[in-house]
TrEMBL record:
The chain crosses the membrane at residues 7-27, 90-107. Keywords: Membrane, Transmembrane, Transmembrane helix. It holds the Pfam family GGDEF. It comes from Paenibacillus glycanilyticus. This is GGDEF domain-containing protein. Residues 128-279 form the GGDEF domain. It comes from the Bacteria.
Amino acid sequence: MRRNASLLSDGGFLLLFIACFISIVFTSRDPNLYLQNIVLLNVAFLIAIITYFTAITAGLILNILFVFGYGTFTIYQTVVQGDVVTIQSYFWLIMTPVFTAITWMFTQASKLLQEENDALKKRNSSLATMDENTNLKNMLSFQKDATVFMALSDRYHIPLTLLVLNVKYWHELRRMIGEEQLNAAVYNISAISQTSIRANDSLYMLAQDNPMWGLLLFADRDGADIVMNRLRSRLAEINESEKSERNRFELNLKMGAYEYKAEETPTPLEWIDRARKELEYDV
């Protein structure tokens, strides 16, 4: 399908150039008919443009009106004024529908390519397991991994805690500073979180609009408190060091943790919801 659409688009683009070249050469061949040809060429372009932005039906109706009007004008010149029917009359009766047909072909190919592109984007977003900005695992990966870890926790009685964190006053910061600084802040927090956990723990980007990170820790609630204190210390060190270098906004995190309990958090999404509610107590 993609190959056919590409060929159709390339063919339409090439034919449009050829039609324009032929029309320009024909328009300039006779100085006495130059003004008339320019007007007819503009009419052909106008119908083609309307076809591009509407549909082939509108183009066909306009072409019928043009053929009827220009044919009537030609008959009037032949019968009343005694002019001879020349190639001038036939050329525009043929070229105007040709312009419309080429434009329609190009438009159809563009629509097919756009539809395929949208379908690929939707498929990619539904299958993607990594956040494109931070290269962290996303919500889809979290749900898959959490299901496995929850089953392991149930079977081997391994303590498992979800720690979630986001930036305090994120919306206010977004209004005050630029997008580039915000992206850098998100990346820095991701890096701090990554270095503050053990190798067998996992870090996820659970939300992007108001960034929320999730850490799956093979630890109980007390172990999660140790990680939270470590994160706060690392962030305080970075804020202090960067404050001395330049006038910069200060980042503060809200954190909440909830230990996995099969009866209270039977699904990954309910587990996230429980942990998110713990953020409300971190003020």
